[in-house]
Amino acid sequence: MADPLATVLTHLTNLVSFKSSLRLLIIAASIICSWVFIEPSLSPFNLPSELSLTLITVIGFSLGALASSILFSSLGLVINYTKSNISARKNKLELQNQAIKKENADRRKIELIRSSFDDYSYSARNILLKLKDNDCTIALDSYRDSEHNQAFLGLLESKIVLPEHRLDKNTTFCTINPLYKKVIKQLFEEKHRKDVEALFDLNPDGFKGLIKKFQNLTYKEEHIFNISYFMYNNRYSYTPVIKHELYELGEFIDNCNIQFYIPEHYYPFVCEKMGVEIRSYVLGKYSEE
Question: Scanning 46, 132, 174, 268, which has its CA 20 to 30 A from the CA of 205?
Fold first, then answer.
């Protein structure tokens, strides 16, 4: 059973609250105003004094209650609107701060990629090179601890490369994290252009003669060029811009036993350096005699 004293105390507390006190003051002021302004208007009706007293009190009380309700409702709307604006402004500021923090964190990650790119292993760069223009599958080597596997796992753990679909236990379709895609393209472009410049500056023996063969568009693509001793002997000096493959006579085309070719990611920069379009590969025959 509820404690009667507690109920009485609750009602008393409500009566002495600021809002209740202000409402009572408004009602009291309204009753007084009714006596001052309305009572003279009722005199011509010659109403009994008790009825006149009751009528004026009821009118004053009603007007006071109505005025206090309108006042408190208006104040409530203003307060809620103000709170809503403050909350919205606070949320907007918080979102802006979060966006700034994320942007700064992303910038630091990108700068870390840029500063450490030269230290990446050959396998790591090779994986990124395969993915920089198009998403593709990356297959693990059969040897678990191979450099390729370690590089691939490292790129996955650092979220530079993202797995999209695992085809089987050894093959995964991957993409480069969109955050790093642009900077990785820029880094490879800088590296490839730098490698091309370095090769032309180094100008190893036989290089000028080989480049002239790449420039020679008179013959068909299958034309077999004679490869000099210097070109053959310094073939490794042209890498990675110009690579080569060796064949046994009759294994490939006619008497071709060596092919020099420019990888597709170096080709546009070599053309840019030369100022003209050139062959992407040269078929050749080298004779030790």
Answer: 268
